[in-house]
Amino acid sequence: MIRSLLHMLHGPLIWIFHFGLIYFAAGFGAAxxxxxxxxxxxxxxxxxxxxxxxxxxxxxTRGNISPTAxxxxxxxxxSLVAILLQALVLRIVPL
Length: 95
What we know:
Layout: H1 2-31, H2 36-60, H3 67-92
């Protein structure tokens, strides 16, 4: 039960961690006086790694046809869209 729930939530958990990490770095990085290019580089690297992790997750579950795996893939796809939209926000909004 718990294992199947975790398999379904891998994508959203990666997105939640990424979301928190990006806003933590942007907020506290600026407040602590870190340089803006360094904060931006860190955020872009975190975004790339999170998107890569979700893509690997989607690739690893491509052959599984169970309903739990299908729900997990759908949630992972939504998480990938959210991560990529966060990259768009990083591009548009200056830190």
